[in-house]
Amino acid sequence: MAEIIVVTSGKGGVGKTTSSASIAIGLARRGHRTAVIDFDVGLRNLDLIMGCERRVVYDFVNVVQGEATLKQALIKDKRFDNLFVLAASQTRDKDALTKEGVEKVLKDLAADGFEYIVCDSPAGIEKGAFLAMYFADKAVVVVNPEVSSVRDSDRIIGLLDSKTRRAEGGEPLPAHLLLTRYSPGRVDTGEMLSITDVEEVLGLKALGVVPESTDVLNASNKGEPVILEAESEAGQAYEDAVARLLGEERPMRFTTLEKKGFFSKLFGG
Ligand SMILES: Nc1ncnc2c1ncn2[C@@H]1O[C@H](COP(=O)(O)OP(=O)(O)O)[C@@H](O)[C@H]1O
Ligand SMILES: [Mg+2]
């Protein structure tokens, strides 16, 4: 049985694609056969972050429209044999995806032995976001600790609870919160909401808290998702989040401001 995980949010630019890429790598690195699908038709972002953009010949829309087989369109990751990317089309319009077409791709992936299918959703409440969440077994709601991001996430949680296959069947869709771009310093000064504030407003528990870090952009520019950067706090936070997704208990790290002493400042310790 494949588990379908949608990575979604209300607002754009909060870190869904960054998170989808790192979660997919994290699952594959732990030995799980994983596919990650870019539902953001017209934007094509995931393949860049995964570092496979030059190998895209066929994409998700081609498969949905019957112009290529799934096998032709799946791009094998350079680092992990058990990880595959299904890229979004850059040129097609957003209506190119259909519910039946998406369902068939997900079924075929499951039949092909994939254990996890990570769906990188476009932002908002348009068709692409709806299709990305519809068949999900689990949702990861990506939120930045800001009022606007939290407010828009509330709307998405409403949709997860009503407009998904599980919801229609009367089964709840388990949803987790992933807080990204978190700066403990800005929480202390009141510019950002705290973890418990966000948890309380949305009524969801945090699966992980990823700090704001320049490592993320550097990693994306290299086509190496940040979870691969062992030294990076953001990378380690993603690794923790994947472990929790798989049911492990791990304490939250990097959520408080480290008051560095003179020597550690001097030697970067
Ligand atoms: N933890 C982080 N720290 C710093 N920048 C981040 C972090 N997470 C994401 N970003 C940046 O935010 C921007 C949007 O990220 P992206 O994953 O494309 O969001 P989305 O898919 O939700 O639109 C990118 O420039 C990315 O590098
Ligand atoms: Mg994106």
Automatic annotation (TrEMBL):
Q: Does the keyword Ligase apply?
A: no
- Give GO terms: molecular function aspect only: ATP binding; ATP hydrolysis activity
Q: Which Pfam families match?
A: CbiA
GO CC list: cytoplasmic side of plasma membrane; cytosol
GO BP = division septum assembly; negative regulation of cell division
Q: Which UniProt keywords apply?
A: ATP-binding, Cell cycle, Cell division, Nucleotide-binding, Septation
Membrane-crossing residue ranges in chain numbering: none
Q: Which residues bind ATP?
A: 11-18
Q: Which residues form the CobQ/CobB/MinD/ParA nucleotide binding domain?
A: 5-226
Family recorded in the similarity comment: Belongs to the ParA family. MinD subfamily.
Summarize subunit and interaction data from the UniProt record for this chain.
Answer: Interacts with MinC and FtsZ.
Entry function: ATPase required for the correct placement of the division site. Cell division inhibitors MinC and MinD act in concert to form an inhibitor capable of blocking formation of the polar Z ring septums. Rapidly oscillates between the poles of the cell to destabilize FtsZ filaments that have formed before they mature into polar Z rings.
Kindly provide the name given to this protein in its UniProt entry.
Septum site-determining protein MinD
> Which species?
Pseudoxanthomonas broegbernensis
